[in-house]
Write a structure and sequence with these properties.
It contains four helices and no strands. It is mainly alpha-helical.
């Protein structure tokens, strides 16, 4: 006598359908990956081929001109970076911006400047009074 349980034919057919479906999904995923890899490789190869064709099609004079143009652009970029990082240049830029804003304020709202000047004068008078009072004691 056999101790094995009898296999349900319905269960077995469902399992083989599941296995077949799983295999189809895996094959489709592998096909997609292969297609993406081919597309990436072809794109890279096409771009490299186009770059090589542009380089080959240029004369030595054109290549020299391109190199000089690239050098000028690099020098311009480095000058801009240096100007942005230089503290003296930054201070000059801040002073210039402040002067420009003050001119705009003077033109549009002169009463603000008068009020500001009066406030500074009052602060100065208060400090002088405080200093005189402190030294008298």
């Amino acid at each position: 006598m056999s101790t094995e349980s009898p296999i349900n034919p319905k269960k077995k057919s469902q399992q083989s359908l599941d296995d077949a479906h799983r295999a189809k999904l895996q094959a489709a995923a592998a096909d997609r990956e292969a297609a993406e890899l081919r597309a990436a490789t072809e794109t890279r190869t096409d771009a490299e081929a186009k770059a090589a064709a542009r380089t080959i099609a240029r004369s030595p004079a054109q290549l020299t001109q391109d190199a000089e143009s690239a050098r000028r652009e690099l020098a311009r970029t480095l000058d801009e970076i240096e100007a942005r990082l230089n503290p003296v240049t930054q201070a000059k830029r801040l002073v210039h911006d402040g002067q420009r804003r003050l001119k705009i304020l003077r033109r549009r709202h002169p009463e603000y400047l008068i009020a500001g000047a009066a406030g500074v004068a009052a602060l100065g008078a208060g400090l002088v009074w405080l200093g005189v009072r402190t030294f008298r004691r």
